[in-house]
Structures are given as structure tokens and as C-alpha cells.
């Protein structure tokens, strides 16, 4: 029933909110830049004179209603722009609303502070200076007017209430129904607003026009008990002195004990409105609560410092190893002693070794959750005692960081338990913890180190997959070249990522075995004779003669056998291919010898043909010379020519030369064998 009596106070809100909106802005010339127009407008001083809607021109009414709308929306920049353009700051609607009242009603603190700074409270100062009317109490005069403080108390905006009280608005002013700030604070039930009002008033039993006290309008049980205690208690609980004008009663913010406002009975403490707000306000604590509060804050500071220091110390080694990992891939600078000295370069330390050392150190980090819960307990105690909000916020952020830190370390340890890592989905939990740690601003040292673990795990899973894919290949062949190439590329990619040593070693052995078998397979393939008389191999090599082709094939097979023989200790290749290669080498040696003999006989025949041709040509030349010789006149009977003699001589020479060449050919063949 009490609330029903007060509802008529806020009927005017609807009429003010439903006021007609006007948007009468002059048309802009499209040829003129908008920035030039803004610069051309003169900035007028704020119009702080009170302007009632009934007395305002249409332009002022439009500007006033626009100002009210922006105050309702909380647009500070728009309000400032309208004020610079000459909008009436103290514009009063027919229902009594002003820009300051609208901003207070909607809880826009920044806008309220701006309006107060430019003099928007002039209307209410004018009302305070006006002749007062008899109050409901009979002997006291008051002005019944709804103020921004009344609206802020009714809506429950403690920061706005504190700003208005600090500016000079009185909590003892009555609204149009005779309600004071305490009446409205009790009807709202906001305890922070109630504390502010109680700290600035001593009249806890004031009545409104309907005879209701703040206690009558209270809806909260705790507030009702508190008001009853304030009305009945007359002495300080600490010093036992009577309350007076110089010793006013005050409420402890923590235990709600009623003490006087004189130190050390109560102590005023500056605290922020919230953890995210830089503004502070004063609240009072009794002697006992301030001691407990100080102790709780000291304990929280100590626990927070201890946990933070422990985490920082544990990451020192990780940071050192991370620097070593970065430096491992950087070669040492080249130095020259003189112009004739040999340039030497020191080989860098293998990055893979440093990454493995870093991962091992990560697995040894402390991840005890009990230490973090000790900080959580200290935070809970501080919150219970209403400790400094900034300290609680800092501790809560540290708690979240430590929780994310511990979760990330635990995921790293879990992932490193069983190596090699075979399932890619097992990395998802670590990746999620890494994202959470990054969002909570965990130490960048741990975040970067965890990222290396994720890269290592991804590389290990990839290598394991290609290794298992290639392990199904019985004998390396060009048919499986695609899978073999993937395995080789995976090995070269993950060699410096710190993957499992056993997996990496087995993958290398399998790679060498498969490629050796493929090379053996190519070596066993015979060459092909071409139409031009040459011989072509499978790798594109060509030989002009058969003997050259046999020698090249013998060299290729020999190299393949030597490579396979070196691998017998680790992973021997197919025994069938080895036997075929050895048999082929024996056959190739025999074929090479036979081809050499054939080549020698061809050389012999060519030499014989050349000798016969030479002798035949010589005999023919001699006979031609004899025919051309002139006949001499003989006195006696001519002696007959002995033709058989010349023939026998020529035949003897021919036969002798033939036997000489045959003997030379036999000597050549014997030397080659």
C-alpha cells in the first residue's frame, strides 16, 4: 500500500519520455564539406539560465527536447555538441524534467558529472532560494520538488547519489510527496545507496505527506531491522557516549554496528566504487572491522606475492632454455685472423637437442592445485570482509592466471606421459589450455614454451602417421614413391622439433631401406637397344656401345649392392633382390669379357683386311711399273723373265706380314685377359 501511494510520483516520467521529438536540422549544401560547417559554427557558452518549456521558442523547445533525448540515451558527445550550439542546459519541461534529472534517472554518471560542471543545477538552486511552504511536520519549512538526488536514490545508482551529495544536494530535501532521500532509498532496497544517505542524515523518522516514515517504506528485512536499531539506539557501541550534534551516529559498512563518527570508534576508508572504476568514495568501519580488514588484506597480499614469486622463479630455467633454443639455429659468426688464414665456422648446437631439454624441463614444473586454492581462500576472506575492490580484483586476476598456468602445465605433462604421440585429438586439450592461458595473460615464457610443445606434438603425430603408412610397404618400389616421399619430407620437417628419438630413428631407417630397395629395383632393370644403335637405361642414361652399356650397368648394380650391404646391421633390404643383384653381377662380368673378346676379334679382322689391302695395292703398283719400263735393244737373244720368282717373292712377303699381324692380335687378347 505504501508503494502504491508513491507511484503517482513517477507518473510524470511517462509524459516526459513521450514528449514529441523534433528533428529540424537545416538542409546542408552538398557542395560544402561538413567539416567546414562544423568549424564555421561558433561555440557558444553554456546557456545555464532556467528556461521553461511554456516560455521557450519552437527552436529552443526542439533543442531542449533533443538534449533530453541524448541525456536519456547517455550520449555524452552529443550532449556536449548541443551545449556548444546553444541548447538550454536548464530546460524544464511542463512535467518538471530537466537534462540533469533525466541523466540521474537513467544512471549516466559521466553525463551527470558533465552537467554539474557546466551549471545544470541552477534550476534546483533557484528552487531552494524560493519562499518555502509549510512541511508535513508543521514547524519546518521545505520546498517540495523532485530533485536529481531523489531520482538517483529511487532508481538505486550509488555513484550518481554520491556525486550529487558531494556537489551539494541535500538528503533532507523533500520531493513533491514529502519523501526524503532516505524514504526513496528504503523503498529501493539498494544497500549502497542506503549507506550513503545514512551517513549524511540524522533524521531517521521523518514523515512524508502521507505520514509514512522510511521504516514504513522499507521492503527489505535487514534494512527494517537496521532502521529500527537506528531509531532506538542513542549511544555509541564503542565509547558508550550519547549521540549529539558533534557526535553523530554512523553505520559500520561491514558489521552494521552503530557507533559515533569520531575516530577511533569508526574510521573512514577511501574505497573504489567497483573493481573497474577509478573513482573512490568514503565508507566507515568500526574499530574491530578495520582491524580484521587490515589483517585480511595483509594476508591476501602475502599469499598473492608468494604465489606470484614461486611461478616466476619456476619459469627462470624455462626462459633460459627458450633463449638457447632460439640461439641454437643461429650459426656462430665467422672470424678471420689474417688475410691468409683459413675461414672457419663453428657448427651451431643442434636445435633439436635444446627443444628436447626445454620439453623435459616443462614436464618437471610444479602443478600443485592446493597452493592455488590457498589464494582462493584468501580472496574469499577478503570479499567477506569487503576489502579493497582493487586488491580483490588483482588477486582474482592472479588466481585466474595461476589456474590457467596450472592447467596448462598439467596438460603438457599429460601429453608427455606416453610417447610417441599417436592420436591428433589428444592435442586438442593442450591447445584449449594454451588458448585459455593466453586469454588470462599467463606468463609469455610458459605460453611460448607450450606452443613449442604443441608444434612438437603435431610433428610427432604427422611423422607417426607417415611412418605407419610406409611401414606397410614390403619392398620399396616406384609404385610407392608418393608415400615414400611423404615420409622423407616429414622426417626433414620434424628433425628440429624435438620429436621422440625412437620414432625418428625408426623412420629414418625405414626411409633408407625403402629408397635403397627402389634403387636396387632400378638397377636390376635391363637397358634397351635403340634404333640408332645406342642403349638406353631407365634413368635416361645412354651408351653408344654394348660394352659401355654393360660397364655402366655393372657400376649401378655394384653401388646398389654396396648401399644395401651397409644397411644389413640396421634394416636389411629384401634378400631376394640382393640375390638377384649378386647373380646379375656375375653375369655382367662374363658378358663384359665376352664382349671384350668379340671386340678384339673385330679389331683383328680389321687389321688383316687392312694388311691385305696394303699388300695387294703394293703388288699392283709394282706390276704397273714393270709394264711401263722401256725395252732395250738387245744384240743377242733376250733372256726370258722369271715370273714365278716375283710371284713367289710377293707371296712370301704377304704370307710373312699376315702371320706377323695374327701374332700381334693374339698377344693383345692375352694381355686383356
Task: Describe what you observe in this structure.
The chain is mainly α and 673 residues long. Among the domains are: 2-220, Ankyrin repeat-containing domain (Serine Threonine Protein Phosphatase 5, Tetratricopeptide repeat), CATH 1.25.40; 296-330 and 349-468, no CATH class; 494-588, no CATH class. It has 25 helices and eleven strands. The chain has a three-stranded antiparallel sheet with strand order 9-10-11. A two-stranded parallel ribbon has the order 1-2. A two-stranded antiparallel sheet has the order 3-4. A hairpin with a 5-residue loop joins strand 9 (528-529) and strand 10 (535-536). Helix 11 packs antiparallel against helix 12 (191-198), helix 18 runs antiparallel to helix 19 (428-439) and helix 22 packs antiparallel against helix 23 (546-566). The chain is elongated and about 170 Å long.
Key words describing this protein structure:
three-stranded antiparallel beta sheet, about 675 residues, mainly alpha, Znf_FYVE_PHD, Serine Threonine Protein Phosphatase 5, Tetratricopeptide repeat
Secondary structure topology:
Elements: H1 2-6, H2 11-17, H3 34-40, E1 47-52, H4 58-73, H5 76-84, E2 88-92, H6 99-105, H7 109-117, H8 122-129, E3 133-134, E4 141-142, H9 148-155, H10 158-167, H11 181-188, H12 191-198, H13 221-232, E5 249-251, E6 258-260, E7 266-272, E8 280-286, H14 287-314, H15 316-328, H16 351-362, H17 369-384, H18 389-415, H19 428-439, H20 444-471, H21 481-494, H22 501-524, E9 528-529, E10 535-536, E11 542-543, H23 546-566, H24 575-628, H25 643-672
Parallel strand pairs: 1-2
Antiparallel strand pairs: 3-4, 5-6, 7-8, 9-10, 10-11
Amino acid at each position: 500500500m505504501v508503494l502504491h501511494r508513491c507511484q503517482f510520483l513517477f507518473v510524470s516520467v511517462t509524459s516526459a519520455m513521450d514528449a514529441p521529438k523534433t528533428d529540424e536540422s537545416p538542409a546542408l549544401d552538398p557542395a560544402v564539406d561538413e567539416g567546414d560547417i562544423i568549424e564555421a559554427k561558433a561555440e557558444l557558452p553554456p546557456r545555464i539560465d532556467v528556461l521553461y518549456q511554456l516560455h521557450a521558442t519552437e527552436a529552443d523547445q526542439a533543442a531542449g527536447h533533443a538534449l533530453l533525448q541524448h541525456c536519456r540515451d547517455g550520449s555524452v558527445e552529443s550532449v556536449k555538441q548541443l551545449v556548444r550550439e546553444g541548447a538550454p542546459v536548464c530546460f524544464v519541461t511542463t512535467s518538471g524534467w530537466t537534462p540533469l534529472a533525466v541523466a540521474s534517472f537513467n544512471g549516466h554518471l559521466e553525463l551527470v558529472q558533465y552537467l554539474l560542471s557546466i551549471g545544470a543545477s541552477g534550476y534546483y538552486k533557484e528552487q531552494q532560494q524560493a519562499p518555502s511552504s509549510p512541511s508535513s511536520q508543521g514547524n519546518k519549512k521545505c520546498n517540495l520538488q523532485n530533485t536529481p538526488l531523489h531520482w538517483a536514490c529511487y532508481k538505486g545508482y550509488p555513484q550518481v547519489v554520491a556525486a550529487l551529495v558531494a556537489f551539494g544536494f541535500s538528503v533532507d530535501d523533500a520531493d513533491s510527496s514529502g519523501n526524503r532521500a532516505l524514504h526513496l532509498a528504503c523503498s529501493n532496497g539498494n544497500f549502497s545507496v542506503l549507506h550513503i544517505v545514512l551517513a549524511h542524515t540524522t533524521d531517521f523518522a521523518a514523515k512524508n505527506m502521507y505520514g509514512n516514515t522510511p521504516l514504513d517504506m522499507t521492503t527489505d528485512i535487514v534494512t527494517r531491522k537496521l532502521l529500527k536499531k537506528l531509531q532506538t539506539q542513542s549511544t555509541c557501541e564503542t565509547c558508550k557516549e550519547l549521540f549529539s550534534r558533534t557526535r553523530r551516529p554512523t553505520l559500520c559498512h561491514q558489521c552494521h554496528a552503530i557507533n559515533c563518527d569520531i575516530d577511533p570508534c569508526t574510521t573512514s576508508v577511501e574505497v573504489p566504487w567497483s573493481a573497474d572504476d577509478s573513482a573512490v568514495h568514503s565508507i566507515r568501519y568500526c574499530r574491530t572491522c578495520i582491524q580484521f580488514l587490515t589483517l585480511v588484506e595483509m594476508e591476501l597480499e602475502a599469499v598473492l606475492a608468494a604465489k606470484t614469486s614461486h611461478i616466476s622463479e619456476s619459469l627462470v630455467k624455462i626462459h633460459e632454455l627458450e633463449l638457447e633454443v632460439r640461439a641454437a639455429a643461429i650459426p656462430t659468426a665467422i672470424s678471420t685472423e689474417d688475410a691468409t688464414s683459413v675461414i672457419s665456422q663453428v657448427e651451431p648446437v643442434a636445435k633439436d637437442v635444446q627443444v628436447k631439454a626445454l620439453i623435459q624441463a616443462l614436464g618437471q614444473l610444479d602443478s600443485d592445485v592446493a597452493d592455488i586454492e590457498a589464494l582462493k581462500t584468501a580472496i574469499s576472506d577478503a570479499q567477506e570482509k569487503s576489502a579493497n575492490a582493487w586488491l580483490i580484483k588483482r588477486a582474482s586476476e592472479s588466481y585466474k592466471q595461476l589456474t590457467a598456468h596450472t592447467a596448462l602445465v598439467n596438460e603438457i605433462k599429460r601429453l608427455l606421459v606416453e610417447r610417441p604421440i599417436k592420436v591428433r585429438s589428444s592435442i586438442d586439450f593442450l591447445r584449449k589450455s594454451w588458448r585459455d592461458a593466453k586469454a588470462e595473460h599467463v606468463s609469455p615464457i610458459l605460453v611460448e614454451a607450450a606452443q613449442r610443445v604443441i608444434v612438437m606434438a603435431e610433428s610427432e603425430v604427422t611423422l607417426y602417421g607417415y611412418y605407419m603408412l610406409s611401414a606397410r610397404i614390403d619392398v620399396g618400389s616406384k609404385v610407392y614413391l608418393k608415400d615414400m616421399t611423404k615420409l622423407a619430407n616429414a622426417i626433414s620437417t620434424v628433425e628440429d622439433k624435438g620429436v621422440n628419438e625412437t620414432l625418428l630413428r625408426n623412420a629414418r631407417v625405414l626411409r633408407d631401406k625403402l629408397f635403397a630397395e627402389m634403387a636396387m629395383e632400378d638397377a636390376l632393370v635391363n637397358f634397351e637397344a635403340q634404333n640408332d644403335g645406342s642403349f638406353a637405361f631407365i634413368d635416361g642414361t645412354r651408351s653408344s656401345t654394348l660394352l659401355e652399356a654393360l660397364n655402366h650397368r655393372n657400376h649401378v648394380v655394384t653401388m646398389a649392392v654396396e648401399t644395401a650391404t651397409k644397411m644389413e646391421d640396421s634394416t636389411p633390404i629384401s634378400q631376394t633382390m640382393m640375390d638377384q643383384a649378386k647373380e646379375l653381377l656375375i653375369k655382367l662380368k662374363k658378358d663384359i669379357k665376352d664382349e671384350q673378346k668379340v671386340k678384339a676379334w673385330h679389331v683383328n679382322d680389321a687389321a688383316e683386311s687392312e694388311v691385305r689391302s696394303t699388300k695387294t695395292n703394293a703388288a699392283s703398283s709394282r706390276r704397273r711399273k714393270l709394264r711401263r719400263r722401256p725395252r732395250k735393244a738387245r744384240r743377242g737373244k733376250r733372256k726370258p723373265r722369271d715370273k714365278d720368282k716375283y710371284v713367289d717373292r710377293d707371296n712370301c712377303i704377304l704370307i710373312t706380314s699376315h702371320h706377323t699381324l695374327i701374332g700381334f692380335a693374339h698377344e693383345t687378347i692375352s694381355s686383356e685377359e
